[in-house]
């Protein structure tokens, strides 16, 4: 099997398929198992493809957007995406590049997480029969196979020698970190996913993050060994900033895609605060704007660059939360960042009793997601970076009272120039 690592995001040969041309143009290709053969197959007609997501949390996060965006582009170009929810694989847990085993989730928690993830992915794809988009749960086939049957059907096609060569496993072994048989078998389960999907839906392509390369290759090889089918694997790049940091988290945690975990405005504000150096790449990756418009926005400078960031934020929020939520977030942002916060709607709501109980400023900063802890919030306050209702506050012992509320029983909180919130107490 030919395997391709894509150098500098460019294919070595001229591409035939519009699908791969677009994915490369947007920066959404990192590795591919057989680039030339996949290119020919995509140029020959619609391809069924999938990406899987385990139910390790009640929401997907910004890091998951890369494979989801690749799938959206392929659906827009006439191909048929399947989102596979890991109701079965979540019972085991993916060990890829983890220093220790994941905690095992019970069935109730997995089901609750699956509900949240389903809510997100169902907004991202056209699930009508004519568009070919589907959402499946791998519990449908993984939980039906008995252990001895599983070993007889699939165990003969995997060798320990081969499996320990994959980076995800080798890194654990080299660090002398224990790896259980349960975790070791995970890559077999994901490979079976691909095989089952190829049989049930004629799926030919799996898309995943770069940390899934070993698991994807196993699935491609299992399809060849069992059915003699040519399957394909493609990974998207690791999501990092221009500074080299893993992107997708704030001081308070992940950038969640579910509005119950992160409000559409907080989501919008994260993208509005994109660093200048990251703007061109993020416009390519996370919007569906034409490349010429991406290039025009990327070339803006000074205050106009902030307008380009607003376009980025609004486009991503539209994709994830819908046009109405994005419009509302933009209006909120314009009001807050222009200083006209009295005209804006609250970004957060808290109970009035919190003030009577003595809500500390540090506690509020942390709760709003502007700091990961009270100690970090203290440093922000002492550094003069915190403004309450427009006034700088430098006393970390400051508590909030009814007298701090302006018209409408609200207060504004700003951290530096980029992070702002309008809190209502009811």
From TrEMBL:
<dbReference type="GO" id="GO:0004831">
    <property type="term" value="F:tyrosine-tRNA ligase activity"/>
</dbReference>
<feature type="binding site">
    <location>
        <position position="186"/>
    </location>
    <ligand>
        <name>L-tyrosine</name>
    </ligand>
</feature>
<dbReference type="InterPro" id="IPR014729">
    <property type="entry name" value="Rossmann-like_a/b/a_fold"/>
</dbReference>
<feature type="binding site">
    <location>
        <position position="249"/>
    </location>
    <ligand>
        <name>ATP</name>
    </ligand>
</feature>
<dbReference type="InterPro" id="IPR002305">
    <property type="entry name" value="aa-tRNA-synth_Ic"/>
</dbReference>
<comment type="function">
    <text>Catalyzes the attachment of tyrosine to tRNA(Tyr) in a two-step reaction: tyrosine is first activated by ATP to form Tyr-AMP and then transferred to the acceptor end of tRNA(Tyr).</text>
</comment>
<keyword id="KW-0030">Aminoacyl-tRNA synthetase</keyword>
<comment type="similarity">
    <text>Belongs to the class-I aminoacyl-tRNA synthetase family. TyrS type 1 subfamily.</text>
</comment>
<comment type="subunit">
    <text>Homodimer.</text>
</comment>
<feature type="binding site">
    <location>
        <position position="190"/>
    </location>
    <ligand>
        <name>L-tyrosine</name>
    </ligand>
</feature>
<keyword id="KW-0547">Nucleotide-binding</keyword>
<feature type="short sequence motif" description="'HIGH' region">
    <location>
        <begin position="55"/>
        <end position="64"/>
    </location>
</feature>
<dbReference type="InterPro" id="IPR024088">
    <property type="entry name" value="Tyr-tRNA-ligase_bac-type"/>
</dbReference>
<keyword id="KW-0067">ATP-binding</keyword>
<dbReference type="InterPro" id="IPR024107">
    <property type="entry name" value="Tyr-tRNA-ligase_bac_1"/>
</dbReference>
<feature type="short sequence motif" description="'KMSKS' region">
    <location>
        <begin position="246"/>
        <end position="250"/>
    </location>
</feature>
<keyword id="KW-0648">Protein biosynthesis</keyword>
<feature type="binding site">
    <location>
        <position position="50"/>
    </location>
    <ligand>
        <name>L-tyrosine</name>
    </ligand>
</feature>
<dbReference type="Pfam" id="PF00579">
    <property type="entry name" value="tRNA-synt_1b"/>
</dbReference>
<dbReference type="InterPro" id="IPR002942">
    <property type="entry name" value="S4_RNA-bd"/>
</dbReference>
<dbReference type="InterPro" id="IPR036986">
    <property type="entry name" value="S4_RNA-bd_sf"/>
</dbReference>
<feature type="domain" description="RNA-binding S4">
    <location>
        <begin position="361"/>
        <end position="404"/>
    </location>
</feature>
<dbReference type="InterPro" id="IPR002307">
    <property type="entry name" value="Tyr-tRNA-ligase"/>
</dbReference>
<keyword id="KW-0963">Cytoplasm</keyword>
<protein>
    <recommendedName>
        <fullName>Tyrosine--tRNA ligase</fullName>
        <ecNumber>6.1.1.1</ecNumber>
    </recommendedName>
</protein>
<keyword id="KW-0436">Ligase</keyword>
<keyword id="KW-0694">RNA-binding</keyword>
<dbReference type="Pfam" id="PF01479">
    <property type="entry name" value="S4"/>
</dbReference>
